[in-house]
Amino acid sequence: MVDVPRWGSDIPIVGRATEVARLMSALERAAAGEATAVLLAGDAGVGKTRVLREVTEKARNHEFVVAYGYCMDVGEVGMPYLPFSDLLNSLADSGDHDDVFAEHQVVRRLLRGGGPGLDQTSRLQLFDAVIALCAAISRKRPLLLVIEDLHWADQSTRELLRFLLSRIRDEHIAVVASYRSDDLHRRHPLRATLGELVRLPAVERMQLDPLPDPSVSRLIRALQPHTMPAPVVRRIVQQSEGNPFYAEELLAAALERPDDASIHNGLPSALADLLVTRFEQLTPEGQQVIRVASVAGRRVEHSLLRDAVSLPTDQLDAGLRDAIGNYILEPAGDGQAYTFRHALLQEASYGDLLPGERARVHAVYAELLSADADPARSAAARAHHYLASHDLPDALTASLEAADHAAHVGAPGEVLHHLETVLEIWSAVPDAEARVGHSDIVVLLRASNAATECGDANRAVALTRAALDKATAATDADLTAQIRYTLAKNLVQVDRDQAAYEQSKAALELIPATPPSATRVWAAATHVLTAHYVGAEQEALKAGQEGLRAAESLGILDAQSDLIVSLLCLAPVGRDTDDGLAQLTYALELARRSGNVAVELRTIFNLAIGRYEGGDMESALLWTAAGIVRAHETGMSASPYPTQMLLIQSLAQHVSGDWDAMCAERDQPLHVRALGLQVDVARGVSIDDELARIFSTTPAELLQQAQSPNARTVLWSIDAAINAGPAAIDQATWAADAVAAIEWYERIKAVLDVVLRPNYLVGVRLSALALTAAADQFERERIMDNAAGMKRWRATADKLIESARQTMRHHLSGASSPHLDGAYAVGPEARAWVARADAEYSRLDAVDSVSSWRHALESFDYGDVYERARCEWRLAEALIAAGERHEADQHIKSARETAQRLNARPLVSALDAIARRARLRSAGAADTRDSLLTAREHDVLSLLAKGRTNRQIGKELFISDKTASVHVSKILAKLGAASRTEAAAIARQRGYL
């Protein structure tokens, strides 16, 4: 054969200077302590691997520790964490990081030989340990992690990568992951992951485009420096369409068959034909080696290939030498494995096999792998080969082993996949139940639990329903009860409360109360929740009390803790009281003794929110901090309760006025970050761009997405809309755009009505804030003597106040039963916002306005410093109108001190404006913007420019019509203006407005 230099040689990289420079810039940032990640996209053969090799070589020259991981295409079978296993093994094999691995034993589960199994919670411990280990290594030398072929990644790999990239920030870590963009069809699982990753601050996406024609020509000349006919070069450039791999293969074909007219006059019908043509140039031994190797995938171990090929040693060596020498295979790692130089080579070789030949080789691999010293780790590959060889009985057994191994390493997505494979072929295996040791009902139940762990609530419901459909009167009652209460928990996750209630009730009826049993205890724990959700409070109470007694008699500590928390949410004396604190403290002790971290975190969350609801912000912050630390210690920082604790922490910081601390940490889930928008608005910062992102989806679309497998992320989007809602309404209100404020109110209320519950208590706050805008606009219409406008805005205010009062009545009467552990409850916060709504409504007629604002101010004494200041502002206005100027002055001073401390500029301006208008002492020194006009004349001028009449100016500034007329005359004289319109124009020109 003609020797054609390949990308693996020393040929300089062609046409990729910009991309390499951009990647090196990312590495420089990582070396400086700013963690970075680049998602490198490109079509098959476009040169992603060559660029990565160039960058990794430069990285090593810059003292980076470099670790490679590869994803593998093994059909529909998942091999959990494969690229991370590669990465960690390469780091461990170097021997340079033994001390770090000794400190993070959890990661050994992904190394050769494995380690202890993972339960449902310790999967997150593994994630945290991987990040901690990488961070520790990067403190010695910068670390570059490279993952190739991410389009073949299993679900657990995608989740671990997402977790890693969302957590790295100040570490000396760079991550580069490549994937085929042309493989990402609309339903490809990587698409959703990429959508989440690109929103992370550390992540950027880079598209590797085809090479321009001059670069392809340079590549051809570099690969074949000898004289080549210009027409051949042009034809290769044209036909390769900028794809370097295609160009190489076309060049090789042209050189190897210079007299073949098909090369000069046109391409073979498909690239696969061209590649197969290259394989045919190999020796028979070389062809056999690549055919057998292709069945294993892109990478194959030497020992496995040796046994599968069944050639004498000298012939095997000759075949390998031929395949490697012709750049089809290349040695990998420590030389104990081989990879196809490009995935397209493996795909073309595999596709050229006859169906029978393909099945036979798969069977050989399956049998060889069954003799593996660590059969659990090879179970997924065996399942793949058995399926491809049509050996369904052994495929079923291997798939179950693969599910067990995936559970062992904490990969619920792969557990689910393997169990679904078992279920698909179950009926085709006559002795399936005998092989497995139990019925397919148990497999369905286990699969539903795996789906729940993956966050695919709808799939969990479908699988549990299938298990229930298969259950008959002869099915063990204990197992049927487990199916029913599992289905109930799954139905709650998809907001099917009534159906969930019916299933948990049926589960309880299946198991007698005596003697006590663990199944009935957990059925009761589920029924407490579902009965509460549908408003059957007495039934929930009865089930909870019975379950608690049984849990105590059986010594099931975590169930005791869980039930204590649930019962406390039902009790008249809630978690915001001293008695509630005592009960939760005891529940926390039980949870810690049981070792159930999930129940422990639920209890800490309830302690935190109980303190928040009770108005004790200091204690709430202490408990949230404790919970977040505990979650980090146990690897549970990404689970739901710690995430909600971040929300409570931000709420408490906002209420207590610790805004700088609240906004300092921006690396938070979307719904937590959305709270910071309220601070931005209060400080006069525009949030239009953020609102556009958060509200890019309609309520109906959110409702539909909430039924998707990625429901948790969707729910965060819903919470983000709710948490950003007050900021959106406030921004419009400060801009005096009441129409926009009401539109925002209606839009956010629609999210509550459509997606959550119409009487969700946050609606009280939204109504109160919208009432502020409505009352402001009513006052503007009153000043303008616009009776129609006043009527319109009074009608709007009537609807808003009724909505707030109705929601509060709904909760106080017990008619509403929000989900347990909800972020809002009828405590001092909700009562304060109802008082605020009443006070805003009182502005329409100024009837009892002073007393209403006094009550609102007192209601916010639980600790909301900003809202207290806003209430003092409005109380001061009401006091001025009532002639109580001295007290008004005191409130303005107090509110201004708070507003200045918080840097709440719009509120400071509003307080200064009312102080000037009312000529209060708190107005301070005269306005010095321009000595030509006095402070009062500036106030009059601003209203004059808005088209106000003298009477309207007088009403707004609390002065008589005559006084307003005198001020207008003085302004016209000082500005040398002949009319009010000219005065406004001159004022704008001189910058007075």
Structure commentary:
There is one protein chain. By secondary structure, this protein is mainly alpha-helical. Among the domains are: 17-209, P-loop containing nucleotide triphosphate hydrolases (Rossmann fold, 3-Layer(aba) Sandwich); 215-267, no CATH class; 279-353, Arc Repressor Mutant, subunit A (Orthogonal Bundle); 723-923, Alpha Horseshoe (Serine Threonine Protein Phosphatase 5, Tetratricopeptide repeat); 935-990, Orthogonal Bundle (Arc Repressor Mutant, subunit A). 66% of the residues lie in helices and 4% in strands. It has 50 helices and 8 strands. Strands 2-3-4-1-5 form a 5-stranded parallel β-sheet, with helices on both faces. Strand 7 (329-332) and strand 8 (337-340) form a beta hairpin. The protein is globular, with a radius of gyration of 35 Å. The protein starts with 16 loop residues before the first helix and ends with a helix. Residues 926-991 form the HTH luxR-type domain. Pfam families: AAA_16, GerE. One of its GO terms (molecular function) is ATP binding. One of its GO terms (biological process) is regulation of DNA-templated transcription. InterPro entries: AAA_16, P-loop_NTPase, Sig_transdc_resp-reg_C-effctor, Tscrpt_reg_LuxR_C, WH-like_DNA-bd_sf.
